[in-house]
Amino acid sequence: MTDADVTEIAVETMTVGAKVAAPVLLTALLVGFLISLFQAATQIQEPTLSFVPKMIAVSIALLVTGNWVLAEMVSFTEHLFDQLPRFLGRT
C-alpha cells in the first residue's frame, strides 16, 4: 500500500462522508435559518421553537434519504473491499 493509495482512500472516504451527511446538515441549516428569520421578525426567543422543528425536519430527511444513504455506504464499502487485493499488493 503506497501513499497514493492511502490518499485515494482518504479522499473517497471524505467525499462519501460529505455526500451522506449533506441531506441532514442542509435540512437542519435551512430549517434553522427559516426559524431564525421568524424569531427575528416576531421577536419570540423561545429555544424550543428552533429545536423541535429542526428535530422533526431532520427526522423526515432521514426517512426520505435513508435508503440512498445506506446504498451509498454499502457501495463504498463494497468498492473498498474489491480494491483490497490491489492495496495489499496482490493484483
Automatic annotation (TrEMBL):
Read off the InterPro entries from this record.
Answer: Bac_export_3 (IPR002191), FliQ (IPR006305)
Please tell me one Gene Ontology term that the record gives under cellular component. bacterial-type flagellum basal body
Question: Which superkingdom?
Answer: Bacteria
UniProt-annotated location(s): Cell membrane; Bacterial flagellum basal body
Q: Using the record for this protein, list the coiled-coil segments as residue ranges, or answer none.
A: none
Q: Does the keyword Nucleus apply?
A: no
What UniProt keywords apply to this chain's record, in alphabetical order?
Bacterial flagellum, Cell membrane, Cell projection, Cilium, Flagellum, Membrane, Transmembrane, Transmembrane helix
The reply to whether Transmembrane helix figures as a keyword in the UniProt entry is: yes
Know the name of this protein?
Flagellar biosynthetic protein FliQ
Q: Which organism is the protein's source?
A: Geodermatophilus obscurus
